[in-house]
Design goal:
By secondary structure, this protein is an alpha/beta fold. The strands form 3 sheets. The chain has an 8-stranded mixed sheet, sandwiched between helices. A 3-stranded mixed sheet has the order 7-6-11, with no helix packed on it. A two-stranded antiparallel ribbon has the order 9-10. A hairpin with a 2-residue loop joins strand 9 and strand 10.
Length: 263
């Protein structure tokens, strides 16, 4: 997340976690750097440090409590030809509505509530959108990732629908349309159901929300996989590296059997 950049943030506990760590980076950069070193990701090429001296511009379909906390902490404050926040609707706990109610008239002018299409796409006001959304980071959450970069966010292989796609597909695609933008999918490496632990990184799956050709960055609790512009073999190896170790050998064998990794 570059200082002076643009943030889109998906809903849920992982999105709230991102907001927490961005606030910590701004308020206590030493503690943030210590956490990076403890997680052994401090030297990753994608990791940024330091305060947000210029601040971020937020362009996100839903204005969440996490985004509001970033505004109140002074992280979201870059004016992008007017607003510091651009969103289509807001939804969250009572604290969010209280914070919105308590905004001064001047502050309310910094919040541009507009159409979903204006936020989720570049159509119509593309030149302005490109100027506003510099160094954009589109951060969303998925349920599963396939070994070649597809993401599953809204449904199961048997046809059951668990959620709407929302703006996730639009933002992932936009990350490939804007110069310097990146799409980041957050993923818990495993899930537990019926007393069994299963990997959320799988060889393949019968439903995909985000196709493999839009693969970019995937993050689990075990690390960061930078997939953009990589071969299938490189993508598979990178995702296996951030999978739970209990499933790494099985994933590698599936990839080798398919001729995607050398034996």
């Amino acid at each position: 997340m570059k200082d002076g950049g643009t943030l889109q943030l998906g809903i849920g506990s992982l999105g709230d976690t991102v907001a927490h760590w961005l606030r910590l980076r701004h308020a206590d950069s030493a503690a943030f750097s210590a956490a990076l070193e403890a997680l052994d990701i401090g030297r990753h090429a994608l990791v940024e440090r330091g305060r947000f001296d210029t601040g971020l511009f937020a362009s996100s379909e839903m204005l969440t409590w996490g985004l509001m906390t970033l505004y109140r902490a002074g992280v979201i404050r870059r004016r992008a030809e007017g607003p510091v926040v651009q969103a289509a609707f807001f939804l969250g706990p009572s604290e969010l509505y209280r914070a919105l109610h308590e905004l001064s008239d001047e502050e309310r002018g910094l919040f541009q509530m507009t159409s979903v299409s204006r936020v989720n796409d570049l159509y119509g006001e593309e030149a302005l959108g490109r100027r506003q959304r510099v160094h954009a980071r589109f951060i969303n959450i998925c349920m599963k990732a396939t070994l070649f970069g597809g993401a599953v966010s809204d449904g199961l292989a048997d046809g059951r629908v668990l959620s709407g796609v929302g703006g996730q597909y639009n933002f992932v695609a936009m990350a490939h349309e804007l110069e310097g933008a990146r799409s980041i999918q957050l993923l818990r490496a495993t899930r537990e159901a019926g007393g069994r632990v299963e990997s959320n990184i799988v060889f393949s799956y019968g439903h995909e929300t985000i196709p493999r050709h839009l693969r970019d960055i995937v993050v689990t609790q075990y690390g960061i996989a930078d997939l953009r512009g990589r071969t299938d073999a490189e993508v598979a190896a990178a995702l296996i590296a951030i999978a739970d170790r209990r499933f790494q050998d099985g994933l590698a064998e599936r990839a080798k059997a398919a001729g995607k990794l050398p034996r």
